């Protein structure tokens, strides 16, 4: 706890993904008070031309009422 899933366009370097994972991990620890050992992060790459069907339609639209940060598109 927590397990964080990040869906992202392909093209980010491994270093960029590691930096993002580190930032999320640090914030998760600071905010939840849980140790680093319980934080897990997964990156799922979704092609830009598939984003609306694979992410927006399936993950965002059906859950719009519970999203704490909504997209502006």
Please provide a written account of the structure.
The chain is of the alpha+beta class and 73 residues long. Helices cover 40% and strands 16% of the residues. The chain has 2 helices and 2 strands. It has helices spanning 14-32, 51-60, and strands spanning 3-8, 40-45. Strand 1, helix 1 and strand 2 (40-45) form a beta-alpha-beta unit. It is globular and about 35 Å long. The mean pLDDT is 98.
The order of strands across the largest sheet is 1-2
Q: Which oligomerization state do the chains in this entry correspond to?
A: single chain
| Total of helices | 2
- Main β-sheet description: 2 strands, parallel
Helix content estimate: 25-40%
Return the structural class: alpha+beta
Strand content: 15-25%
Shape: globular
In a nutshell, what does this entry contain?
40% of the residues lie in helices and 16% in strands. The chain contains two helices and two strands.
Layout of helices and strands, plus pairs?
Layout lengths: L2 E6 L5 H19 L7 E6 L5 H10 L13
Index terms:
alpha+beta; two-stranded parallel ribbon; 2 helices; globular
């Amino acid at each position: 706890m927590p397990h964080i899933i990040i869906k992202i366009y392909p093209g980010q370097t491994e270093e960029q993904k590691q930096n993002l994972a580190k930032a999320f991990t640090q914030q998760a620890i600071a905010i939840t008070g849980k140790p680093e050992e319980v934080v897990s992060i997964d990156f799922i790459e979704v092609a830009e031309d598939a984003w609306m069907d694979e992410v927006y339609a399936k993950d965002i639209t059906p859950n719009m009422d519970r999203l704490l940060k909504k997209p502006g598109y």
